[in-house]
Amino acid sequence: MAAPTQAFSETIRVLLLEDNPADAELCIRRLRKAGLNAVVDVARFSQEFMDRVHSQMYDIILTDYRLPDWNGLDAFRWLRSLGYDTPFVLVTGTLGDELAIECIKAGVSDYVLKENLERLSVAVRRTLEEQKLRQSRDYAERELRESEKQYRLLFNANPHPMWVFDPVTLRFLTVNEAAIQHYGYSLAEFLSMTMCDIRPEEELQKFLTMMRDPKHSGNADRQLWKHRKKDGTIIEVEISSQPITFRALNAELVLAHDVTVQRRAQAEVRESREQLQLLLDSTAEAICAIDNNGDCTLCNASCLQLLGYTDESDLLGKNMHQLLHHTHPDGGPYPLEECRIFRTFQRGEGCHASDEVLWRADGTCFPAEYWSYPISRDGLIVGSVVTFVDITERKRAEEQLRQSESRYRSIIEAAPYGVYRVDRNGIIAMVNSACVAMLGYRTAEELVGLNTAIDVYVNPIDQLRAADYAAGGPSVGFETTWKRKDGKLITVRLGGRRLPEDDELPGGYEVFVEDITEQRTLQNKFEQAQKMEAIGRMAGGMAHDFNNLLMVISGYAQLLEDPAIDPKKLTHYVAQIQSATSKAAAVTRQLLAFSRRQVLEPTILDLNYVVKDLGKMLPRLLGEDVEVVTVLDPHLGTLRADRGQIEQVIMNLAVNARDAMPDGGHLTIETSNVELEAARYQRHEIPVPPGRYVLLAVSDTGVGMDTETQHHIFEPFFTTKEIGKGTGLGLATVYGIVKQSQGFIWVGSEPGKGSIFKIYLPRLDVPATEQAAQPILETLSGFETILLAEDEIALRDVSRVYLESKGYIVLEAANAKEALSICENYEAPIHALITDVVMPGLGGLDLAKLILKMRPGLAVVLVSGYTDRAMDIESCGSGTKFLQKPYSLDTLGRTLRALLARVDK
Questions:
Q1: Which fold has domain 12-136?
Q2: CA torsion sign, 24 to 27 to 32 to 37?
Q3: What is the dihedral of CA 627, 632, 638, 642, to 10 degrees?
Q4: Reported CATH class of domain 158-265
């Protein structure tokens, strides 16, 4: 006999078999104290218990184990022998482990020790819940058996509509009586119809498309369609079909099962299950397990939700005392030795706390009731299981009954965070002590009446932004800067809500404040430490690369000291020294690009033209197993940048992509115009300020990167390649060039899913500058007078020797002062100035400007290995050229000759 299902809010009938009236009365009080509306009948001996069972249906039976003429297990077995499945719970004084196991195996729902009657209500609720679930399961099983019975009837007697139709003409060939009865058409009407005649208009095209599909074989299993009966009723049917041969025709046999009522019932069942699940979720208990050290070994979803965590990894392995009990409610320390959970489970005992304070991940706390039971293994205590529930609402109801407005104000005053209320104009109406101390005032009266926009916010606009932030509802996380009474600035995080119109401050705001100044200071220190770590890695990489190159140069230089050296070896040694210096020059150029100290010669560029030009050589560079695809926006805007630097960005990204695709793949280069909105920037979906950009996207199908690698890829000398396979400057160079070009770079990648680099450069939308062809020089020799300003003696000497070997007259100056003196006193013409940009005293750029005023039309060659500021080369006129150290002497000669040829014209 199944007991009737009762909701906990309704009356439940309980039969209590207990020979001790005091114990019976205690059980009844516990049930009613727990909020259960229970009607309890008490039986003191076996015959009275049997009479009660025969005369009344009960939702649950509670019984002592030891009785004068019986025991609880005998009562349970007698009950089950009569076919009753009423939930059965033992409530007894003592019950050994073996006997408890025997009772549970026999089918007893649960047992509760009289010394722990606090658990009785929990056991009763859980037992009734389990009974409901069993009844639901039994119902489902009965439904399944009925469905199986219908299937047998369908198979044997075909009670459901069945027909055969021609898949070409779609005409009915024959139908059974069930179809005639169900659809309302006569046999003659069916045979004059096609399948289209029973299809509603909205599904006709879908049906015709399926029948015309060459892959349609006629086999269909449980397809859901809508059919129209003769009277116009639309029904939902499940269709099963099978290809057959009917009267020498290829036909299809169809079984149609009307599931209109069934689907409506299923929808009702789903709704009922959702309501039941909602009830279970709303009453779920949080559970966690801890080991002897207090570290979490298990947690359920309710535990995560209640404590404000999103994933079990946030708790597993963490000390639960530190997370749940890091302070008392008043903020005082909560030592481990005071924790009841640890005190009791280490003695092998359980504990129950009806009013404890636990802390969430966000630093807030909540009152809780918890139970802790030790876990034993091989006679040793290995941990404890803790069950807890949030009793915030219960506490709030109790507080509302006991407390008054003064108590509410005292809570606000004791809050560790600042709290204040303002009217719609931002005038402070109430403020707590924490907020007073935060702003450096002595009393709340000094703050009341102040205008927050003027007297508190550093930027008055932030007051309006904070109001807009909270206007849509309660909010947390708006950060701004406040000024204290003493003028000191602090960083605060605000949260709050807009007050309703029925409040005493209609349209005003209630705001909570957290001082995060120290937190932001620590964050800045951490970021600075990360920068220093990157600098250390860069210094180590530079030392490694340059020491190798210096060894090559030093070694071959020593070999050149041999007076009897073979001329062929001499040529080889010199070539090796030049090769090493070229490699060193390449490293310094990459470092300058990374540090954004490289001197650029920007022009107005058409990025599509640059990509197309590079696209001709990329396949040869990347290899045959890498397919290069370009997707270029035909209406792409222009940008201002150094073409050589942009080409280097594309080349570095392409080489990086090739290394990420050792087995080949696809490299895609895309260009487009984009306009980024402020909202996306504020949500950090794209870390690029709003505006109009030209987008260069380079993506590959390579191995991809994890999050940790992405945090370091732009650091100099960081590489994931083997030693000797890469310098680690490729992406650092890309980053430096992009930043020096006033652009932004974003990377997205996942392991095994390739990578994409997106570069945003400011869009100009003006015509691109035409690239003039460089003249081919037949000779590097000359006769002109050159002023050479260089503070490095050795470099000045080698430059002078080279220029004099080409026929030039060279005037030397060790600094800008000497160079100006020569210009003032040298009576013959001076045709060109070669000057280092960085010299003691006056720099080369300023020197060139002064000399050009004295000798207009002078050709100028600016040289530098490094500059700490941007250079406006164009300010010296078109007869100026910049050379990046180190450069070859021939490069100097060609540059000088080209400038002099332009000046002569």
A1: Rossmann fold (3.40.50)
A2: negative
A3: 0
A4: alpha beta
